[in-house]
Amino acid sequence: xxxxxxxxxxxxxxxxxxxxxxxxxxxxxxxxxxxxxxxxxxxxxxxxxxxxxxxxxxxxxxxxxxxxxxxxxxxxxxxxxxxxxxxxxxxxxxxxxxxxxxxxxxxxxxxxxxxxxxxxxxxxxxxxxxxxxxxxxxxxxxxxxxxxxxxxxxxxxxxxxxxxx
Length: 165
Known about the structure:
By secondary structure, the chain is an alpha+beta fold. The chain has 6 helices and 4 strands. It has a 4-stranded mixed beta sheet with strand order 1-2-4-3, with helices on one face. Helix 5 runs parallel beside helix 6.
C-alpha cells in the first residue's frame, strides 16, 4: 500500500485496507514484482464484450390542468397553531379548494415560514396569494377569481406590517 491516496482513504475510513494483498506483496521478493508489472490485458476490451444491463426509459410526464368550469362550493378556513398544519392547507389547495389562512395564533417566525410555504405552493400550482389583513391570507387556485373592494392596490410594507396611509 504505497499509494498515499489509498492510505489517506483508509485513514479516513473511506476505503477498506486490503490485508491479504498487502501480506502477499510483502512476502514476494522484488524480482517477481517486476515480472508482475508486465502489461496485463486491457480492461476496456473485457468491458466491451460484457453484456450490458437493460435500460428502462424515462416516462414522460404530461401536465394536467383542472378544467376551468369547475364550480366553487366550499372555502376552507384554517387557524394554524404550528407549522405542521401546512399539510392540511396544501392538500386542500391542491384539490382546488380556496383556503383562508389566519396566522394570528402563531409566533411570527412560524407564521413567516408558513406564508413562505404558502407562497411557494401557490406559485407551483399557478394560484394566487393575497393578503386580506395583516395576519389573514387568501390562497386561491388557478380557476378561482377573487375581487377586491379596494380601488387602490398598495403593495408597500411586509406581510406582517400594515402599509401606512
